Amino acid sequence: IHVEFLDYEVLADYGWSLDDDDLFRKASHANLGEAEYGRLLVQPDESLLEGAENRGFGWPFSCRGGACANCAVYLVEGELSQPANHIMPDALAERGFRLSCNGYPVSDELKVVFNVKHLPELDDLIL
Ligand code: FES
After folding, report:
1. I want to staple 107 with a disulfide (CB 3.0 to 4.6 A). Which of 31, 56, 60, 78 is the partner?
2. pLDDT-derived band of residue 65, with 50, 70 and 90 as boundaries?
């Protein structure tokens, strides 16, 4: 499963928005560090967070159990499973927010912005 990722902090630094149609194209041209933007392969039996960790990336997390939202990501493309027992409100899930600690890719390709816990909408959820 191919995952293209981008650190939310880069959006803040460059003044980009999650809604930008060409967000990943801009990122690919911005000469970002390899932890900020890049690609990784996730195995079918790995959650997105595990996949990132097992490839050497340090993405944020805390509980690893769907209860704190520190591991939240935003889906630009593709789909990530969301277990029934989780802290993400439906309204945010519908907009494309997911938890990476217990979310498994269910599409062959994913584009995700990780580290979105700094978004105001998610602040209240962070424990
Ligand atoms: Fe707490 Fe994912 S690490 S919900």
Report:
1. 78
2. very high
Range(s) of the domain holding residue 37: 2-123
Residues 39-44: what's their mean pLDDT? 96
**Runs of H (alpha helix) within 1-127:** 8-14, 23-28, 48-54, 90-94, 120-123
> Ligand 1 centroid vs 127 CA: distance in angstroms?
9
Q: What's the domain count of the chain? A: 1
What span, in angstroms and rounded, lies between the C-alpha atoms of 70 and 89? 14
Inter-residue contact 6 to 24 (CB < 8 Å): yes
Query: ipTM score of the complex?
Result: 0.99
User: Which residues on neighbouring strands pair with residue 41, listed in sequence order?
Assistant: 2
Q: In the predicted model, is pLDDT for residue 84 greater than 80?
A: no
- Model pLDDT for residues 113-122, shown as the tens digit of each residue: 999 998 888 8
47, 48, 50, 68, best to mutate for ligand 1 pocket (most atoms within 8 Å of CB):
68
